[in-house]
Amino acid sequence: MLLYEYPGKNDMLRRRRNLAADLSKKKKLRRSCLITLIAAAVIFAIGLTAEGLAAKIGICSLSIVTIALNVGVTSLALSGFDVENKEKTSVTDVGFTHETLSLTGKRLKFDIRFCDVSRTRQNMWGDLVIDLKSGSQETVPFRVTETKLFLIKNLSEKLCYPKKNYLEIEDDESEGKDWVDRL
Q1: What is the C-alpha to C-alpha distance for residues 81 and 9, in angstroms, rounded to an integer?
Q2: CA distances (Å), 24 to each of 70, 78, 101, 159, in order?
Q3: Cβ atoms < 10 Å from Cβ of 20
Q4: How far apart are CA 88 and CA 142, in angstroms?
Q5: Is residue 2 very low, low, confident or very high in pLDDT (cuts 50, 70, 90)?
Q6: DSSP 8-state assignment for residue 90
Q7: 100/110 Cα distance (integer angstroms)
Q8: What is the value of pTM for the model shown?
Q9: What CA–CA distance (Å, rounded) separates 68 from 162?
Q10: Which of 4, 38, 133, 163 places its Cα 20 to 30 Å from the Cα of 149?
């Protein structure tokens, strides 16, 4: 039985609504990337015409570093778009299947059965680290946190995730009183 699915119907509708805005943002990023590349090419051309070997090397290396930084930053910014298109998750009562796309473009697919899980925790990047009974370990990255929160909140016992019961503090005495009266 299907318990949870991402993207759901509401997410698909929201994605269609935001498509035009996302496309214009991508176009602006690509335009700025092109302008920076043209500026770097001009700097490179000036570097070739400069006098002295040290000036040529310095200006050309500055141009190459500018191009590399521009391409890297732009590709990271563009990878932030379509996050919802890159992640699909379905959770059943037996286990869950999670597909995501890494920054390198490699498609990662995880099929985890709850009966195979010995314990679960999070690493410092917020990915779920699942220790399996076979001794292997799966690190499942979640770009959309609502899926991970659903798993932790509703299926923490099946995932062997340490659920913390926080003490809820209720202060019935302060109703109707000002904080100034309490000081």
Answers
A1: 19
A2: 19, 12, 23, 41
A3: 9
A4: 10
A5: confident
A6: E
A7: 9
A8: 0.56
A9: 43
A10: 133
